[in-house]
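G., before I forget:
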Amino acid sequence: MTAATDKEAPKLPETDFTETPWLDPQAAPFIQIKSLSKEFDDFTAVDSISLDIYQGELFTILGGSGCGKSTLLRMLAGFENPSAGQIIIDGVDISDLPAYDRPVNMMFQSYAVFPHMTVAQNIAYGLKKDRLPNAEINSRVQEMLELVQLQDLAARKPKQLSGGQCQRVALARALIKRPKVLLLDEPLAALDKKLREQTQFELINLQHKLGTTFIVVTHDQEEAMTLSSRVAVMDAGRFVQIGTPLEVYEFPLNRFVADFFGTINLFDATVTSSVQVDSCTHTIEAALDKTGTLVKADCSHQLNQGDIISIGVRPEKLSISQKKPRGKNLTITNGIVEDLAYYGNRSIYRVRSHSGRMIQVSAQNFQRTKELVLEWDDQVYLSWDSSCSVVLPE
Amino acid sequence: MSSHRGPSTFILSVLCFGFAFLYVPILVMMAYSFNDSALATVWGGFSTRWYSALLNNEQIINAALLSLKIAAVSATFATILGTLAGLALTRMRRFRGRFLFTGLIAAPLVMPEVITGLSLLLLFVSLQQLIGWPVSRGATTITIAHITFAMAYIAVIVQARLASMDESLEEAAMDLGGRPMQVTFDITLPLIAPSMISGWLLAFTLSLDDLVIASFTSGAGASTLPMVIFSKIKLGVTPDINALATIIIGTLSLGILIASWIILRSQRKTSAQRQSG
Amino acid sequence: MSQANHSIPLGDKLWRWLVISLPYWWLAIFFLAPFAIVFKISFADPVVAQPPFSNFFDFSPGAESWLLATLDNYRFITEDNLYWISYFKSLKIATISTVLCLLLGYPMAYGIAKCQPGTRNILLMLVILPFWTSFLLRVYAWIVMLGKTGAINSLLLKMGLITTPIEMLYTDGAVYLGIVYTYIPFMVLPLYSVLEKMDTNLQDAAADLGARRWQVFFNIILPLSMPGVIAGSMLVFIPALGEFVIPSLLGGIDSLMIGRTLYDEFFINRDWPLASAVATVLLFIIVVPIMLLQSSQKERS
């Protein structure tokens, strides 16, 4: 399941490729990773990974701890030597170049702002190492300070800065050498929640303005979803799925991705019938294990009767009601509200279905009421449209 | 472990006894250094004649100068070598003989001085036989010996500091185009400088204080201050050594107190800055 | 930093090589090689020559054997009582001194840890301060104190408590005193660092559950401070074992600690091969507590 290509996900109608260069058959990839591996003494951290990234992308590598994403990033930066494979940036093989000779800069998770240098000295460091004339260094530092809005703090030491300011120093310092690729290691993890949201947008705007290719590594799927042009989900040293956040969320390729990227209700089922609707849609019907409840689902490929599959439904795609809903393509089941959490804008219900399964539902609170619309132990019906069922191979 | 109850009477009395034990002998010795009488039993009145006698004692002055010279040179070289060793152990991940290297750093710390001294002397003798160097033993051989055992202490201090330092600082510098040597000088050394300074001071003190290793590795010509003191006090109390001890211990204590006061003040300053910034 | 990349410039490789090799070779030449030489000479014969030991190899024609090694020195160590007594006396003095240091150092460390933070730092400073001042002169201070005409005897005489001076200097007692006095900071510091970090809630919880004060100490505090006890004991025991200065300044002629015996063998008897054998044996004796220390540290981490 390496390097799952985009072909498998349905294409959205698109003619202009400037925002989606990976769909353009004419476009040449800017960064090419070719069967890259990293083996440590007793385990394989990165297992023969291949990936193309295009100019100007904000590409995110998402995975849990120990999945190999940090090793991959460190290989791109030049802190680890690949055991096998190649990294090509803008046509140049950089696999064997040491970190200080690569056209790549990195923003570290801890920000790694030099504590004994001022903000301006920190930002100037990279240019000083390139032995640029002082006048040019000064003007470029000034430019950078303005870009990240730190003009007033240029003479401060890092000790006197807040976490968000440190983050901007680290960003400015990494961008001043105009790298071909900027690597960001968990760029927002060290910030508190409010600041994180604000910084997220700043980062996207900055990337648009500069057009630099960004590669972000994160374990936070929300961060991945809001930041990226494309996401690669990584597990056990391999990519499990690569696609836009929308593709990965709505059309996960397997149970791991479906579960890791957002929340999903998963059911084991056996296919009972499969009907072709048009060239790329089949409507299937499957019986859930144990109860035999029939579930309708749309699928991009032909399935045979008796195939064992998983059916997934995202909590927000489910409707919850006390009246039995009607509809042509609906799957309907019923159960008892066992748990509910009220979030204001929405509520999360955990419903025990008549078969004993626990199903999670997220519902918008459309109405303004003095009491909860649904209470614990209420009898409810759950329903969803066949197009919302995700068919996953077992 | 500060507690609302505070120490009990038993603990307090042990503390008092302990500190009295540590300081009374030194203070008594200092008091005797101002005794006009050469006999400890008699108080002959206040006098500074042992101090002037000390200043006219050429042997002691020369030995003191030699000791200071050896201490300064050996502390400096030990700091350089010890820092390199600390860097090698924490920042150079893999190299051949790493296991042996780790052992070589730890061993001088626990080795009895008599063994270190003896083995170094035998090395110098064997070297002289083999290659004709060192021609004679003296300041140079003592300095080499002191560098060897002091660098282990410094390596341990520097290693501890490096281990607690965020390695991504150095990686960031390298990522920005700093070559390994530049990174060491731009980032690593400024950040571990306090540890290097305290390491240097420790090496200086160890060298100034060492008797056993110096006795083994010295030749006929060179006598360090501890060697002179030892030969004098082996025969019992000598009043001018009281004066010398008062000067040495007084100067060292004052230096340490001033140094720690400065460190404490700068710590307070930075913490105050952090609160305001 | 630091991988062996193919295209790393020569200068950067040289720097890496320098960082590792300089200290490595220094220690190999001036620390490791000397031990090999000590080991070698411990198998040689003493001769009246410069240097005073026989050659190890003899390639001259007519030599009985090209290798001239002898176990005589080791045989001599096992046969002559002097060495046995010295080793055992060293072990005895080091052990008893360590226990004495622990008995004095534990309550001190405990007391310091119980003080207010401000007082704590000052007291800690007072413990460390003597360590930075001259070791030799601090031992000498005890000669001033203990001598026949020293401070203690003159005071007692003046007070009329004694009529003739007490024999205190040049005894084993003086050696114990000197070792405890010199090494007490090494005991207090590790104990303090363990006790200072200890959570007071544990003690309060034990007291709350009905433990008496001494029960709290023996059931809670002491077991939790064992790492400090072990580290402190080793830091006192190991240097005390090879101690030379204290027994030769404060001890009597019969204070035969092994460090002193070795020194005398070397400088007074000029028997270098025998001194080397004594050193080799001492080295093996030292290795045992070090191994114990290391395994206890490994357990902790």
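Residues 46 and 166 of chain B are 57 Å apart (CA to CA). Chain B has eleven helices and no strands.

More on Monday.
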